[in-house]
Write a structure and sequence with these properties.
The protein has about 425 residues and is an all-alpha fold. Helices cover about 60% and strands about 0% of the residues. α1 runs antiparallel to α2, α7 packs across α12 and α10 packs antiparallel against α11.
């Protein structure tokens, strides 16, 4: 279907193939599982991936005109920031807000839309020969953000701090990949050894036996570590794909821009969701809910953007909850509440800006983002994940964990032998 969607006169054939893709992906994602609660994270992740591929199948089957390469302007860098500069200048912030006034995770139509090279753009030399159809299908199948295709128009690409030359770029990407693996391992170890949800049975991030201030301090720590875990897992998979694309398939480094842009620095929710957070699932949520929400909004005589926002966030809520339900066999509406609330807060931001003429920004904007994401998300996102045993299941196998195989035994040795006194110069006081 990925190959056919780029060919004219194939709409009927794609519709015929869609039921096969639908049943195959549902079976693979939700019926074929690794038995045992310790593999919950792997099973849930597999379900998420299958839902993403299913959204692509929906796109390919019902997009009658097919999906094609974008023919619009040159690659767009936010605020004119040159590649290699990772700082967000005031002009860049202004450009981001002006560009994303009317979208969050959404399809964006612009009078002068532009595109970036696809993260999986296959070079013509590599596409020549017998494998050309396969590589052409993989190009659009793996182009999650659609940076080189018509559905990726209006996408804002973060500046890339890595050097543009191939070998330094590959080395920087490899170092970034290793660092993210180590962070994942450290967080996983902390969850297993210092949390109430460290087993596959799961548990709440709220420790009821603690005083309220300590309880919420710890829950905030667990919530932030959950967010960091999600960021690092996205980046680990993306960095690995980057190493393959640039190092093996000889694709240009500019075809693999970053997927995150310091989300903790966001000064408003629109900036957080539509610019700084990953846009890999942008099209997925648009297909599952954004299109329908925009259509309903238009039918009701409302602004289409309102329906797009709520439709996209509602789809995101169901997307995040369905694999968890398939694993735990219990439905938790709080996940949907979290994403619906995010849609409401985004619309509230836009309303505030239109009424007052002042955008949400600065220190107060950062506090607003912290409250709506880090505050609201504790009980409506992270707690749901860990109650289902996701954090307590196997993420990094113990035998492959540097933290558990090297650091913790070394730390135990240092504490047991009093070696830390020698390091601190306090041996005379022991």
């Amino acid at each position: 279907m990925a190959y056919l969607v780029r060919r004219p006169g194939t709409h009927i054939l794609r519709l015929i193939l869609f039921p096969v893709a639908l049943t195959s992906l549902i079976r693979l994602g939700f019926h074929i599982t690794i038995p045992g609660g310790e593999y919950a994270a792997y099973n849930v992740l597999k379900s998420y991936v299958c839902l993403v591929v299913l959204s692509k199948a929906v796109d390919y089957a019902f997009y009658a005109g097919g999906i094609h390469k974008s023919v619009h302007g040159p690659p767009r860098q936010v605020g004119g920031t040159p590649a290699g500069d990772g700082e967000m200048t005031p002009s860049a912030v202004s450009a981001v807000r002006n560009h994303h006034t009317n979208n969050t995770h959404l399809e964006k139509k612009s009078p002068n839309p532009v595109s970036e090279p696809s993260e999986n753009a296959v070079t013509e030399s590599a596409a020549a020969g017998f494998f050309a159809p396969v590589l052409e299908a993989l190009e659009i199948l793996c182009a999650a953000r659609g940076l080189e295709f018509d559905y990726g128009r209006g996408m804002t690409i973060p500046p890339d701090p890595r050097p543009p030359e191939t070998r330094p770029f590959l080395w920087a990407t490899f170092k970034h990949w290793v660092s993210r693996l180590l962070i994942i391992d450290a967080i996983d170890t902390m969850w297993k050894h210092a949390s109430p949800f460290g087993t596959p049975k799961g548990g709440s991030i709220f420790i009821q036996t603690l005083p309220w201030h300590t309880r919420y301090l710890m829950s905030t720590l667990y919530h932030l570590s959950t967010g960091m875990m999600i960021i690092c897992m996205f980046e680990v998979m993306y960095d690995l794909a980057t190493l393959v694309g640039v190092g093996i398939l000889s694709q240009p480094p500019k075809a693999w821009p970053p997927i995150f842009w310091n989300p903790f620095e966001s000064q408003c929710l629109q900036e957080f969701w539509s610019v700084r957070w990953q846009q890999v699932l942008r099209r997925t949520f648009f297909v599952y809910g954004g299109l329908l929400g925009g259509w309903i909004s238009k039918r009701l005589g409302l602004r289409r953007g309102v329906g797009l926002v709520f439709g996209t966030f509602i789809a995101s809520g169901f997307y995040h909850e369905i694999p968890l339900y398939a694993h735990a066999r219990t439905w938790d509406w709080r996940m949907l509440q979290f994403f619906v609330a995010q849609g409401f807060f985004v619309v509230l931001e836009r309303t505030w800006e239109k009424v007052t003429g002042r955008p949400v920004q600065g220190l107060l904007g950062q506090v607003w983002v912290a409250v709506t994401v880090a505050g609201v998300g504790q009980s409506t996102f992270s707690d749901i994940l860990h109650l289902r045993g996701i954090g307590g299941s196997m993420i990094i196998p113990t035998m492959l964990s540097p933290t558990r195989m090297l650091f913790l035994p070394f730390l135990s040795y240092v504490i047991d032998t009093g070696t830390w006194l020698n390091f601190s110069g306090l041996e005379g006081y022991s």
